[in-house]
TrEMBL record:
This is Uncharacterized protein involved in response to NO. The chain crosses the membrane at residues 20-43, 63-80, 92-108, 114-133, 145-166, 178-200, 212-233, 239-259, 271-292, 304-325, 337-355, 361-380. It comes from Geopseudomonas sagittaria. Keywords: Membrane, Transmembrane, Transmembrane helix. It holds the Pfam family NnrS. InterPro entries: NnrS (IPR010266).
Amino acid sequence: MQLVDRKALLQIAPLWRLGFRPFFLAGTAFAALAIPLWLGVLAGWWPAWQPAGGALGWHRHEMLFGFGAAIIAGFLLTAAQNWTGRPGLSGTPLAVLALLWLAARLAWLLGAPLWLLIPLELAFLPTVAVVLGRMLWAVRQVRNYPIVGVLGLLTLADLLVVAGLAQGNESWQRQGVIAALWLVAAMMGLIGGRVIPFFTQRGLGRTAQVPALPWLEWGAQGGLVLLAVLTASGPALQAQAWLGALFALVAVLHGVRLARWHDAGLWRVPLLWSLHLAYAWLVLALAGQALWHFGLLANASLALHALGVGGMGGLILAMVARVSLGHTGRPLQPPPAMAWAFALVNLGAAARVLLPPFWPLGSLLLAGAAWTAAFALFVWHYAPMLCRPRLDGQPG
């Protein structure tokens, strides 16, 4: 561990001491506010509101590049300190990065001119990648270089979206967002493949965690990146049997991973079953996309929302709940209300995926209400932790 000035770090306001604090708080608060705004659009409450790209384009983009990117940044900027033994981003540089994220969100929300929106939007992820990359390069930590690569691909997906916005090309915007969703799935697979078996072993007191199988890890993760590339370039957005076979194969690979991690005891521990259920939504999303490509599922959006709501949303909620406890010096015992929050995000996913054919608008309102309540519970219980010093008096 690199020596740092502990006294100087303790003089920094707690919110700016490490990346998880501002970005977990901002990302989850954004998740709790953005979905009610979107539901208001569906209900016709504010017809005059015109965000960049229109209300649908805003919803699509911001749940990935607003909410998702904030949590990814907070997690990686915090984890990199543990991975490398070097101090993480803190103080004024961290505050400036958070303000950059916020400025881009406001630019989309208020429909700012493209000359302002585009540079604000395209600056955030590359900055995170550079900060992370420098920390990894300093200790030559090759194992984590692929994470920087995924951040680069996410930036290219975002570039495709804003190019579509500038050119009025709806197809480019959709391709970029859905490609980014599969790249987030790749990040879920990469990080989840490390932490889910580890947390399960530690949480249940097992003597050893399930060992990784290199062929399975590379196949599962490579498959998700390939699906993202095929989406960004267009082919995966048209139903084709060979793509159905590819999606099915990747679903099997991730299903095998999940089955290998399973332990009957995890269902007694909310911080564990929430992680496993979120990963199950990823498997379900891949299977749903396979069915759509085979012509057996009418609406591809249902599978994509299984990934976005149940997979991404569920894994984010489970991870921020655990990471925030550990990095604020607290026991790994979340507030009892978080078990309800985990259940609510899964209820929202089920409503969004299973009910639209039978209850179109009502299912969306139910899903949105469950999602909002889940993230509002996190903000209510965790905001004080994120804004106060660690309980053990340590910096960070």
